[in-house]
Amino acid sequence: MLKIEQLNAYYGTVQVLRDFSLSLGAGEVLCLFGRNGAGKTTALKSIMGLVQRTGSITVKGEELVNLAAHLIPRRGIGYVPQGRRLFAELTVAENMTIGLMARGLMTSGIMTKDRAAETRKKVLALFPPLASRLNQVAATLSGGEQQMLAMARALCLEPRVLLLDEPTEGLMPSMLATIREVIMALRHRGVAILLVEQRVEAVLPVADRVAFIENGRIKDVVGVEQLSENHGRLHKKYIGKYIGISQ
Question: For the domain 25-51+68-238, what is the CATH superfamily, name and number?
Answer without folding.
Answer: P-loop containing nucleotide triphosphate hydrolases (3.40.50.300)
